Amino acid sequence: xxxxxxxxxxxxxxxxxxxxxxxxxxxxxxxxxxxxxxxxxxxxxxxxxxxxxxxxxxxxxxxxxxxxxxxxxxxxxxxxxxxxxxxxxxxxxxxxxxxxxxxxxxxxxxxxxxxxxxxxxxxxxxxxxxxxxxxxxxxxxxxxxxxxxxxxxxxxxxxxxxxxxxxxxxxxxxxxxxxxxxxxxxxxxxxxxxxxxxxxxxxxxxxxxxxxxxxxxxxxxxxxxxxxxxxxxxxxxxxxxxxxxxxxxxxxxxxxxxxxxxxxxxxxxxxxxxxxxxxxxxxxxxxxxxxxxxx
Length: 295
Description:
It contains seven helices and 16 strands.
């Protein structure tokens, strides 16, 4: 979808997407180290990409992942091809939270606010706006967008009502584990918001969620351990030889409505939204990415 949108920008603007990005966003906001190619990035300090394994993190060699070399191809510039740094992204956050204080913002304040209007629900307490994930945490609206590519994982979070924002950059594909911890910490200390776990009673037919779910970044198998509400969830790589992140640890979960909640083998909380059509679970969202049921 973002690749198609990037192409629309090219047609309307009569120039490559990367050039439109520079003219309309990065140059007005003085994001001088935000680029789209390896040739531009190589003159700066670049973090080496890593892949996490149970026995430790390992650097990812060139050519591994879904990009042919280190950078993504032109068609992926819009969805995931922007290379940036902490200072530039903090400047972007400031422009989003207080456009009038940043000189020439990429959009007017009223149009920025419109970007954060929810468009479609994607799970309990979560919805999508125009490219932004909208969450309700402790009664506070958190706006953000996570992103992952081979060897890197990033999170941008905003609390517009409080004028707060932060960015987490990791040079590892499994960086989302850190994202959750940092998000919880900053929400608690800066916003006074505590994310309360779902303490509702198990509900919904647990066995209806059992099955095999396949997505672009792996396969999840859910089985009923015993009669009742307890389910076992195991991730594994696809068998087509494509590069994928290392699977998440196995987990034990319960069904609570359209959500599977529990803990994994490392003791971390797990929350997996279900996609239900009628009475049938047709897909799950693993790391907010769809995995469709195939059994």
